[in-house]
Design brief:
The complex is a heterodimer. By secondary structure, chain A is of the alpha+beta class. Chain A has 7 helices and 20 strands. Chain A folds into 2 domains: 154 residues, no CATH class; 82 residues, Lipocalin (Beta Barrel), CATH 2.40.128. In chain A, the strands form 4 sheets. Chain A has an 8-stranded antiparallel β-sheet. Chain A has a 4-stranded mixed β-sheet with strand order 4-1-7-8. By secondary structure, chain B is an alpha+beta fold. Chain B has one domain. In chain B, 52% of the residues lie in helices and 11% in strands. A 4-stranded mixed β-sheet of chain B has the order 2-1-3-4, sandwiched between helices. In chain B, helix 6 packs across helix 13 and helix 9 packs across helix 12. The radius of gyration of chain B is 20 Å and the shape is globular. The chains are: A alpha+beta, B alpha+beta. At the A-B interface, helix 7 of A face helix 4 of B.
């Protein structure tokens, strides 16, 4: 009930405050090490020291506040500036929209995910991927959430494109490279052997006997995404039918595993 | 086969007993929107059966669960008659398949090429991709009416004849689909040999030559046994008995076994059965044990 009320309040807040727009506004996030070093962010004179993203409205003045002084920063529309480490290094990247990586205990993160209408998936690194419509933007409205923090916004650097698509988060098509294709090695599985229902928690992934796939959480009639699949060396290519990028999953034993170690088992 | 209409009427006459029956038993004899199926579990069970079939190199025979309660009742008993009282020849054919029960909704989700409508059975060949699905449609005779024919002197004989005809039609359609001729059986053996471990295949052939095949090999490689023992009646009898153990004594994926003898239904493996309305009708002996295609009683209490 508390979460339901919180979600309702969040919705009202979004309406009342004009929710941030990731294409028009920018964002800043300060990671745990930077916060512990006394670094914060200031937007139009208001200081923010929480663990969640801070929206920088178009035209607003933003600055990183360090123990040694205030450093104005420029944040472009659609850009995320991460303040990383005790030195407060600035990293610039595109703002994610439907996902946010957080740290925290299971109860806190799950409650946080529910409050923003998203789903939390534990990562092998010990953090969490919280995914849902506008998850990142909604998180920026929260200010701070007890037990949720240590944002690690940069995904593992080995194959970030695969990580994005392997979690079935909508992305623009990307050009696959030879390095991508070489990253998964091993025999090409027999397509017939792949058919079946796979599950990861409450997420179901069905590879049907006609070469199609669909992904859903509660109702198979309303899949989150669907498309066609094809075996590839060491795994399976998932071609979404919405024009999104091809997702690659590794076949490990009978399970399909993405680069974050999220495993869908039959 | 018991007449469903008679059963319902008599159950209604049982009055308080029926009214106080828990939801699951009411659903068992009524036609409801969700049809008493746990769709998620059904797809899960069907997928597991499909994967077993694919990994063991055998076809998947899906006994189609109709959405309509009346049609479901008819099929559940017809399949029960065949499985419980089928000949060794029928059982050796069935032995070569992985058998599961499913609605067409779930089957089409996993095997889109299964097509529309509700055939009695669909045989899927999962060694191919896309898989080949063969629809098996039959027309079966119904029992004479308990209302109009019960007092006829040949009533019992006509009931038994109808059962014989149903079993014969189902058995013939299955033989055509699974073991139509020697080449089809040989092909199934080749598919199994390709799918299974080579050492296991060698053990199967050696056991056939000895004339005694252990149960685990009969269960693991039925098509190889069937093809290799075509002239060895004792081995084929072992195969039929093994099929009875797998398909008749154990529940099929997507189904329970249940028994009806006129005083309600007892679902096997449950200790929470409920008896309602004795004297609801005569159930021929061969029709008493049937496939029960509803959610478990325990889950329906919730």
């Amino acid at each position: 009930m508390r979460n339901t009320i919180a979600a309702l309040a969040l919705g009202l807040l979004a309406i009342a405050c004009e929710a941030p727009d990731p294409e028009r506004d920018g964002f800043v996030v300060v990671d745990e090490d930077a916060r512990n070093a006394g670094i914060a962010v200031e937007v139009s004179g208001e200081r923010h020291s929480g663990a969640l993203p801070v929206a920088i409205p178009e035209g607003a003045e933003a600055a990183v506040v360090r123990p040694g002084g205030v450093e104005p920063i420029a944040v472009e529309p659609g850009e995320l500036v991460e303040v990383v480490g005790a030195s407060g290094e600035l990293r610039h990247r595109d703002t994610p929209r439907d996902q946010i990586w957080v740290g925290g205990d299971e109860a806190s993160v799950t409650a946080f995910a529910e409050m923003i209408g998203a789903r939390a998936t534990r990562l092998p690194s010990g953090g969490w991927a919280v995914e849902g419509p506008d998850a990142f933007v909604l998180a920026s409205l929260m200010g701070s959430v007890s037990g949720v923090g240590a944002l690690a916004m940069v995904p593992p650097a080995d194959r970030p494109d695969v990580i994005d698509v392997a979690l079935f988060v909508d992305r623009a098509p990307v050009e696959r490279t030879a390095a991508d294709d070489a990253a998964l090695a091993g025999p090409t599985p027999d397509a017939a052997s792949l058919v079946g229902l796979y599950a990861h928690g409450d997420v179901s992934l069905l590879l049907d006997a006609a070469g199609g796939w669909s992904l859903w959480t509660t109702d198979p009639e309303q899949p989150v995404r669907a498309g066609t699949y094809r075996p590839r060396p060491g795994g399976v290519d998932f071609v979404p039918n919405d024009g999104g990028a091809v997702a690659v999953m590794e076949l490990t034993g009978d399970a399909l595993v993405d680069d974050l170690g999220v495993s869908f088992a039959p | 086969m018991i007449e469903r209409r008679t059963f319902l009427t008599s159950a209604a006459a049982a009055g308080a007993a029926t009214l106080s029956a828990p939801a699951w038993i009411s659903r068992a004899f009524a036609q409801e929107g969700d049809n008493g199926r746990d769709r998620a579990a059904e797809l899960r069970d069907l997928s597991a059966a499909y994967r077993r079939a694919q990994q063991q190199g055998r076809p998947l025979l899906v006994l189609v669960v109709p959405e309509d309660g009346g049609a479901r009742w008819e099929r559940a008993h017809a399949f029960g008659e065949l499985l419980n009282h089928g000949t060794d020849a029928t059982l050796t054919n069935l032995a070569m398949a992985e058998v599961a029960c499913s609605t067409m909704t779930s089957l089409r989700r996993l095997v889109p090429q299964a097509g529309d409508g509700e055939p009695w059975m669909v045989l899927v060949e999962p060694d191919q991709h896309p898989a080949v699905a063969r629809r098996i449609a039959v027309e079966l005779p119904e029992n004479p009416s308990q209302w109009t024919d019960r007092e006829q002197p040949d009533y019992e004989q006509r009931v038994e004849s109808a059962i014989d005809q149903r079993m014969a039609i189902l058995s013939a359609s299955l033989e055509e689909a699974i073991a139509g001729d020697a080449e089809m059986i040989a092909r199934r053996a080749r598919v199994a040999e390709h799918a299974l471990d080579a050492a296991l295949v060698q053990r199967v052939h050696a056991a056939i030559r000895r004339g005694t095949v252990p149960a685990e090999l009969l269960e693991a490689a039925p098509a190889i046994v069937r093809a290799g023992a075509r002239d060895r009646a004792p081995v084929l009898a072992q195969l039929a008995e093994n099929a009875r153990e797998r398909l008749v004594r154990r529940p099929l994926p997507g189904s329970y076994w249940a028994t009806s003898w006129g005083c309600g239904v007892t679902v096997e493996g449950r200790d929470d059965n409920v008896m309602v309305g004795c004297g609801m009708g005569h159930v021929p002996e061969r029709s008493r044990r049937f496939l029960y295609w509803y959610t478990s009683p325990a889950s329906m209490y919730e």
